[in-house]
Every structure is written in structure tokens, then in C-alpha cells.
Design the sequence.
């Protein structure tokens, strides 16, 4: 990677880190919400569904702003986190991961929900009649069977997370080495005189990473499908 | 003993069922498609909860709405063989079998190796489930349920998705479960032939109600059965013992009640207990002892009941001294012969009417 400048390597590495964290952060709640939406009929289901998809239709900057007033050091959640755990989200890479997680949440819920809907509930009943309790059946039957969708969803979320811009820059600003991810670095390069070459390199990396993610997700899905004989 | 008394409403459909069966034993829930058989079996399994009622297995209450008791399905110790096998596609056959075995509670009676042998699964253990034929899948599903060491095995039309050849492939295995493992079973079917082969008890269900329940012999005499199996298939199911094989004719002599009946049976052995079905249309009623007749079986008996039948015929129940059979006669014949309950008659059963296929080991 000698053709990349030091700053660009830092931005790339930071993007990967933040995106990974965001995927891990959003997976457990996304799984719970996907399960709720796919398997339960309850009052207010439509509302939950709409709320989940909200980040998709809101301006990312608005999401960043909402995060700022909620998770900022003066915000209700942010203040509590700082007092109790000494954790600051604003202007940190963890904050960037949170912003990215919120933005990719709808994509992940959607992927998980689709793969969950593809798992025959009859198989869960079969597991139940063989003595498996709720958690047991989820781990031993449901989760393995939704694995193709789960992995595809995670790879997609990771790729999409690499490019998150608006929510990140609003919530955690554009600090080199801390929150300046690939797209932020690209934007900064474009704003500075003589940055065209750097911008081109960063754009090329973004394209390559995105493409690699999509291909990997597809390859994985196929492999698992073949294993399951579908 | 399995005791069931439940009510369940699902949309426009209402089920109200009540029956008992001894354990071990094989009870067939028998009725037309959509009569509520599957709902009833799901209630026993615990996959559905009754709106009201109580289910008790061998003295343990599985669910009782009055006492607000409810054991979840996974802790009932009940095995379930679904119509569509429902093998886990991400596991190989061996891992499917072990899934139930590892989570089994209660006393172990089914040993892995023995069950694999019983259902002839040895060559299939390393396969993936999508590489199996329909019959093989169903055998794996049965073995998987057995290895969960169930106190009761529920089977929801396990043969319905199979063609005739596959059905004949799986049926003998189910007979082996009944005879060798003596595991209590509740078997859902709308095929009377399967019921005849497997069941010791029959629960008749129609439009969400259990209309009759009891041992298969007396149940075969019930007129309600006709509406479900069709008039042609109505006939008494009689358990009897083969007394001897006649050397000259090769016919088996079967004791039915106090009488004897000669039946053509290739594989029959003396002293064997068998089950035969004597179709009502194959029985002729005579008021005097017949002489010079081609029919070989003439048994003395007494009319116990005359019931309505389809069209212009009547179903006559004749007691042959401990075993009852049905005869179909026309209304005019019944009048001319003055047939009535209490009257002594002769039942003529055509020898050919009892085929070896209808002869089952018990």
C-alpha cells in the first residue's frame, strides 16, 4: 500500500475499524427487532417497522443532529454514559461507530428479517418437540438456517458503513486519526488545493472495497445455499 | 392412559374433543381432511393451547385450563412425526438423529444403534437431508423422534406425502415400533387401510367433534364410520386366532367368536393371532342352516342390532359368540326374512372375501 499516503492509510484503517464496530454494535438489537417483526404479531408493529426504517428516509445530517442532542455530553444518554462509565461518544471513533450503526440499522434489520422469514417455523416446532427450549432452538436451528442472510447482511452493513458521511461528520466531526474516515478524508482532500490525486486514490479504494463487499456477500450466500441444498 | 378433553376455536373452526386411550396402544384419529385431527394432535403436543380443557398422560397433567397448569411442549416428553418430516437441512442425518437424543429426558429405552437398525438407516447416516427420498426422510424423522425417548409418539399423517410404494416401505417400520418397542402412539390418518394395519383404538372425528372412540373391533361396527370410509369399505374388524392350516385345501382355519372360518392365507401360521376385516357387503344372512352351497363359511349367530344404511339397505350386526360382524341386506330382504334383533341366523361369508392382505399380525 505504498501508493497510499500516510493520512490516507490512517483514514482507511480507521474506516475499517469503525465500520466493524458499528456492525457488531447494531447486530444484537437488529436481530431482536427482526425477530419481533418476522415472528410476532403485536399492536404497534407497523410503527416499529416505520421507526426502524426512519434513518433511510431522514437526511443523515438530521440523524447526526439527533445523536448529538441525545448522546452529547449534555444529552440525556450521553451525560449518563459519561457519569456512570466515563464513556464519551462525541468526537470519538466509538461515536462514529454509533452513528454508522444507526444509519445501517435498517439495512441490517431488513436482511435479517428476510432470512428469518425464510426459516420454516415448522422446523422450530420440530426442535421444540425434540426437547429444545426457546434459546436452544434459536441457537441450534434458527440461527444456522438464517446464516446466509445474516452474513450477507453483515457484509453489506460493513460495506455501507465504510461510506457513512453525513451522520458521522455531524455527530463526531472530522478529526484526523480519530473520526476522519474514508469519505471524510475524500471530502477534505477535495476541499484542499492540490488534493485531486489523493481524492482519486480514496475514491478508488472506496469503489474497490464496496465491490469486494458485494461480491463476497454473494459468494458466501451461494456457498451456504449449496450446503443446504437449496 | 391418555385422557383428552379439550375445546379450541380457531377462526370459524371449532374443535371439541374428548377421548381416552390405554398406553401402550395405538389410537388412530380418523376422519375426513379438515375435520380437526391435526389441531387435536397439536393440542396434545403442546404446540397449541386449548381454550378450555385438560390433557393427562399416564397420570401427569399436561395442560389444565381450570388449574392454569401448562407444561410447555418441549418438556412434555412427547415425540412428533410431522407429515413433511421436517428434518433440519443444516445437519446431516446422524446429527438430526442425535439432536433429539441429546435433549432426551426420562428413562431411555431407544438405543441409537438399535433404532438405526430398526429403521434401516445405517447407509444414510452420513447423508445430507436433501439427498434422501421421501420414504427415507420419513424413516429418519421417525427415528429422530424415537431417540428423544418419548412417552408418547404423535404421528400426523406420516405417510400422506408418499406414493403407494413408499407408503408400503414405511408402514412395516411403524408396525415394528408398535410390536417391538410398545411405544404408545396417536396416529392421524384419513386412510382407513393404515388405521386397520396400525391402530388398536380408533377416535372418530367429524367437523371438529369426536363422535365415537374405542377399541377398533367395536368401532368398526359403528354406523358413523360409513360416512367417512364410504359404504363399500364398511366391515367388521375381527381379531382371531389361526387354529390350523388344512393340509388338503391349504386354507387357514380361523376362530371367530365360537365359530370357525376358512380363509385363504399364504403366510399364515397356526396359533398366530391375526386381524381380519370382513366387509359387510361380503356377508349373506340366512334364517335356516344352508345346505349345498358354494360358500364355505356358514357361522351361527344372533342378530344384535339393525341399523340404517345408505339407500335401500340395512346394516345387520350379528354376534358370532363373542365376535360381532356386519352384514348388508336390502330393506325388502330384511322384511321378508323378518330379521330383527334377537333372531338366530346364519352368516355366510364368502371364503374369497378375506384376503391375505387384510390379515395382520397383532
Sequence:
Amino acid at each position: 500500500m505504498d501508493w497510499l499516503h500516510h493520512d490516507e492509510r490512517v483514514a482507511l484503517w480507521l474506516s475499517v475499524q469503525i465500520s466493524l464496530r458499528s456492525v457488531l454494535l447494531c447486530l444484537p438489537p437488529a436481530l431482536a427487532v427482526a425477530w419481533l417483526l418476522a415472528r410476532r404479531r403485536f399492536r404497534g408493529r407497523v410503527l416499529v417497522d416505520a421507526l426502524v426504517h426512519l434513518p433511510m428516509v431522514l437526511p443523515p445530517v438530521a440523524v447526526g443532529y439527533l445523536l448529538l442532542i441525545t448522546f452529547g455530553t449534555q444529552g440525556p444518554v450521553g451525560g449518563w454514559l459519561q457519569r456512570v462509565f466515563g464513556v464519551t461518544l462525541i468526537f470519538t471513533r466509538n461515536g462514529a461507530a454509533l452513528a454508522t450503526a444507526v444509519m445501517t440499522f435498517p439495512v441490517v434489520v431488513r436482511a435479517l428479517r428476510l432470512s428469518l422469514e425464510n426459516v420454516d417455523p415448522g422446523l422450530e416446532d420440530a426442535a421444540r418437540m425434540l426437547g429444545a427450549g426457546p434459546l436452544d432452538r434459536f441457537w441450534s436451528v434458527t440461527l444456522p438456517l438464517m446464516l446466509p442472510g445474516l452474513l450477507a447482511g453483515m457484509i453489506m452493513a460493513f460495506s455501507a458503513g465504510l461510506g457513512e458521511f453525513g451522520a458521522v461528520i455531524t455527530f463526531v466531526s472530522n478529526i484526523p486519526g480519530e473520526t476522519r474516515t474514508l469519505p471524510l478524508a475524500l471530502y477534505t482532500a477535495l476541499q484542499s488545493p492540490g488534493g485531486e490525486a489523493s481524492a482519486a486514490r480514496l475514491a478508488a479504494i472506496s469503489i474497490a472495497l464496496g465491490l469486494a463487499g458485494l461480491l463476497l456477500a454473494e459468494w458466501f450466500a451461494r456457498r451456504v445455499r449449496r450446503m443446504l441444498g437449496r | 392412559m391418555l385422557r383428552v378433553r379439550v375445546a379450541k376455536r380457531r377462526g370459524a373452526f371449532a374443535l371439541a374433543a374428548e377421548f381416552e386411550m390405554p398406553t401402550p396402544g395405538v389410537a388412530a384419529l380418523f376422519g375426513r381432511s379438515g375435520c380437526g385431527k391435526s389441531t387435536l394432535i397439536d393440542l396434545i403436543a403442546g404446540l397449541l393451547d386449548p381454550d378450555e380443557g385438560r390433557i393427562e398422560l399416564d397420570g401427569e397433567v399436561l395442560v389444565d385450563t381450570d388449574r392454569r397448569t401448562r407444561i410447555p411442549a418441549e418438556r412434555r416428553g412427547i415425540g412428533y412425526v410431522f407429515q413433511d418430516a421436517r428434518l433440519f437441512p443444516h445437519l446431516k442425518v446422524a446429527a438430526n438423529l442425535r439432536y433429539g437424543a441429546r435433549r432426551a429426558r426420562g428413562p431411555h429405552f431407544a438405543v441409537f444403534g438399535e433404532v438405526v437398525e430398526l429403521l434401516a438407516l445405517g447407509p444414510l447416516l452420513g447423508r445430507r437431508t436433501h439427498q434422501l427420498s421421501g420414504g427415507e426422510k420419513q424413516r429418519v424423522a421417525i427415528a429422530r423422534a424415537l431417540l428423544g425417548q418419548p412417552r408418547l409418539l404423535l404421528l400426523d399423517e406420516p405417510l400422506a406425502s408418499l406414493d403407494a410404494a413408499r407408503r408400503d416401505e414405511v408402514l412395516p417400520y411403524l408396525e415394528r415400533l408398535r410390536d417391538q418397542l410398545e411405544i404408545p402412539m396417536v396416529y392421524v390418518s384419513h386412510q382407513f387401510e393404515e388405521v386397520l394395519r396400525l391402530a388398536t383404538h380408533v377416535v372418530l372425528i367429524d367437523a371438529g367433534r369426536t363422535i365415537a372412540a374405542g377399541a377398533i373391533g367395536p368401532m368398526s361396527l359403528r354406523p358413523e364410520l360409513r360416512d367417512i370410509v364410504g359404504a363399500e369399505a364398511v366391515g367388521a374388524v375381527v381379531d382371531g386366532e389361526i387354529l390350523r392350516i388344512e393340509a388338503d385345501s391349504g386354507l387357514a382355519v380361523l376362530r371367530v367368536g365360537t365359530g370357525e372360518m376358512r380363509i385363504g392365507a399364504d403366510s399364515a401360521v397356526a396359533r398366530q393371532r391375526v386381524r381380519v376385516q370382513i366387509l359387510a357387503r361380503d356377508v349373506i344372512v340366512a334364517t335356516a342352516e344352508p345346505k349345498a352351497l358354494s360358500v364355505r363359511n356358514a357361522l351361527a349367530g344372533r342378530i344384535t342390532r339393525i341399523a340404517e344404511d345408505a339407500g335401500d339397505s340395512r346394516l345387520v350386526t350379528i354376534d358370532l359368540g363373542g365376535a360381532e360382524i356386519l352384514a348388508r341386506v336390502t330393506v325388502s330382504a330384511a322384511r321378508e326374512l323378518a330379521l330383527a334383533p334377537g333372531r338366530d341366523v346364519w352368516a355366510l361369508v364368502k371364503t374369497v372375501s378375506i384376503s391375505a392382505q387384510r390379515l395382520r399380525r397383532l
About this structure: Residues 62 and 206 of chain B are 25 Å apart (CA to CA). Chain B touches chain A at residues 45, 47, 72-75, 77-80, 82, 84, 86, 88-90, 99-100, 103-105, 128-131, 144-145, 148 (CB under 8 Å). Residues 352-362 of chain B have pLDDT under 50 and may be disordered.
